[in-house]
Amino acid sequence: MSETTEIKSRAFKYLRNLEEAFKTLVFKGKNKEVMEAVNEAKRYFEDAKYYFDKGSFIDSIVCSTYAEGILDGLKMLKLIDFAWPFERHIKKVFVAGTFDIIHPGHIFLIKKAAEYGKVYVVVARDSNVVKFKGRKPIIDEKQRLYVISNIKGVYKAILGEKDDILKAVERIRPDIILLGPDQKIDENNLRKELERRGLKNINIIRLKEKLETYSCCSSSKIIDRVISYYCK
Question: Is it the case that residue 160 has pLDDT exceeding 70?
Answer without folding.
Answer: yes
